[in-house]
Design brief:
single chain; alpha+beta; two-stranded antiparallel sheet; 2 helices
Length: 123
């Protein structure tokens, strides 16, 4: 992971949680933290939302495990490139590919009015 994200302000802790912390240029977004557990990877999107990658199984082949890890890394790449929007209230939230369309009324009502990318608020 370190090699893949060498151009981003980050710290990596191979044997600890969070195993990676990426520092957003926006104080409102804060840190993106990556936690690795026995059967899942959780990406904390600041204090705003999170993305869970669940289902990792010890019985998987090496190829299946590599595919799971690649999915996580691709999400991180899109997130750090500003291609993922996210929103939330710490306890609940969501994310989507950047659409340049405003979120709906109920999404804003239940999950907060602001929408963010890695670089900060977008609305």
């Amino acid at each position: 992971m370190q090699e893949r994200f060498r151009n981003v302000s980050a710290t990596f802790n191979e044997n600890e949680n969070p195993c990676a912390v990426f520092y957003s240029p926006s104080k409102e977004v804060g840190e993106i933290r990556v936690y690795e557990y026995e059967n899942e990877v959780v990406i904390g999107l600041g204090e705003i939302s999170r993305r869970n990658f669940e289902g990792l199984k010890a019985s998987w082949t090496l190829e299946e495990k590599e595919e799971f890890i690649e999915d996580v890394l691709q999400f991180l790449e899109k997130l750090l490139a500003g291609e993922i929007e996210f929103w939330g209230t710490t306890a609940k939230g969501g994310f989507r590919s950047k659409t340049y369309k405003p979120r709906g009324f109920f999404s804003r009502l239940f999950f907060g009015k602001k929408t963010y990318t890695w670089n900060g608020p977008v609305e």
